[in-house]
Specification:
With 306 residues, the chain is of the alpha+beta class. Helices cover 25% and strands 23% of the residues.
């Protein structure tokens, strides 16, 4: 599989904060880049900045010097281990540990590998079809929603919605693992959108799909995203990765597309136009179940509750 890109575009806004705790990689992207990283730091003034910059640069460094095609999930885990070691070197023993979320997208010969940790997100959006993948937030509010403690509509106003349950922090006892999936259903025109939570304060999935499905040029879409999130209280950063072309190669049919049934794909959990008081929670989609089959099952379950 050969995947080519339109020029990748980034957003890197400080918002209403005093300093920038987000970090992106690469700093000056080209259409030939294969690796894209976005991190959102935490831990107070300066500490979050150190964590996000350290992790993004360390992973970028590792890929430049050690990555071997075809890239595997184990190589991504090796890259994270390298980043953890670099993070340990920056640890000053503070009581409140610094940390960072992680989103990573690698575009290679076996499709796309997507890894995430925390509440920064990765979206796969296909104009005309909608969201094919939304990374499941590692957050307290999402855990409470999935367990049925709060409704979907209550998530945005929940008082502790900023608490993440998984992040990269220094220390041997703090090694969290990322969710990693392989995506092989990639088509020309698809968008991959990586963003920190600050980009989502005033943007719904419906609005994202409408924007990415519009006839606007990519730079116009980037400018619209900046405009729509101008009042964000948090730092807000993003990557817009637009697929130009996909050329099939021998052996592509043997590749596994994990996107539709991945447990870390939030569209397998989020309600699909279901009323607030009638949410159906799907814990795990059956193997090889298509999205259409899943949607029909959801509709049947919803009708059964009326």
């Amino acid at each position: 599989m050969k995947i080519s890109l339109y020029p990748p575009l980034s957003i890197y806004e400080i918002g209403q904060r005093d300093n920038q705790e987000d970090a992106i990689w690469p700093l000056q992207p080209t259409s030939n880049d294969k690796l894209f990283i976005l991190c959102d730091g935490m831990g107070g003034h300066e500490h979050g900045e150190v964590a996000s910059q350290t992790v993004s640069q360390a992973i970028g460094e590792w890929f430049e010097t050690k990555a071997i095609e075809p890239l595997t999930k184990s190589q991504i885990e090796d890259a994270l281990a390298y980043a953890y070691a670099k993070l340990d070197e920056k640890d000053e023993g503070e009581f409140r540990k610094m940390g960072t979320t992680l989103t990573l997208l690698y575009i290679g010969g076996t499709g796309i590998l997507a890894a995430h940790m925390g509440d920064s997100r990765i979206y796969h959006i296909r104009p005309g079809n909608g969201v094919l993948y939304q990374s499941r937030d590692h957050s307290l509010v999402f855990d409470l929603f999935q367990s049925g403690e709060i409704t979907y509509n209550e998530m945005n106003s929940f008082s502790q919605k900023n608490i993440v349950t998984r992040a990269m922090t220094p220390g041997e006892d703090n090694r969290m693992h990322s969710d990693i999936i392989q995506i092989t259903d990639v088509q020309a025109g698809d968008f991959f959108y990586l963003c920190s939570d600050g980009m989502l304060e005033q943007m719904s999935n419906t609005e994202l799909v409408a924007l990415f499905s519009s006839e606007k040029k990519d730079e116009e879409k980037r400018q619209q995203l900046i405009l729509d999130t101008a009042n964000s209280q948090d730092n807000h950063s993003a990557w817009l990765i637009h697929i130009n072309d996909v050329i099939s190669e021998e052996g592509d049919k043997e590749l596994v597309n994990e996107e539709p049934t991945a447990r870390c794909n939030a569209i397998n959990i989020l309600p699909q136009s279901v009323p607030d008081d009638d949410v159906v929670i799907v814990k795990e989609a059956p193997k090889k179940q298509s999205f259409l089959t899943w949607l029909k099952r959801l509709i049947r379950l919803t009708k059964g509750k009326k």
